[in-house]
């Protein structure tokens, strides 16, 4: 596996791919070897990213950062192979890079990389795309939880979610037996109970919420604005938000009335 192959396999945008390959050819990865290796240590990955940004300095469109993330992701391919994890899961996981860049383009009209705060998880083999959902192994002292994330391109239907959850349980049982008995948790605006009054009774959101025990209503967040309205999450000009779907219309009405949405915390019901 090399960066050029990975870029092709994940369908990295051509203009970004060209810049990444040019960066790789001129960059001395020995200068950041420690930081890239530290992505693999869950409690160190945030510090490693901060150090990496300091070393890289000025970085137009974060191309140097993206190249380093891809280099780390190439390295973890050997870990996938050693553990016997399939190429299907590896490449599905690493397609986060092209997906994030597409999301940024839809929001800004420009191709660049702005998710390095998140991709330490993929580059450190802490997070895996299994069918439609992503699963992150979170290690907190002696406790392990598996955090569920919903990619923007996921099929969110009940059957697709069910298939992913079942596949994930088999995956972790086989490759990470130390996670046996771990709670499957999720922090998301999709778990805010207020949404139940904004969608149909049989909506995908309701079905998803029914899988969880909500143990924390969470804090007010604006992440949902990017996913629902394709606007910057800091945009507060609610009157100009689109109304193309029933969820957009209901959420827009909610915001204009002074309402807010919280990122609630839940864990999968044991009998779910």
From TrEMBL:
Span of domain N-acyltransferase N-terminal: 1-122
Record-annotated GNAT-like C-terminal domain positions: 131-267
Parts forming coiled coils: none
Species this protein is from: Acetatifactor muris
Name used for this protein in its record: GNAT-like C-terminal domain-containing protein
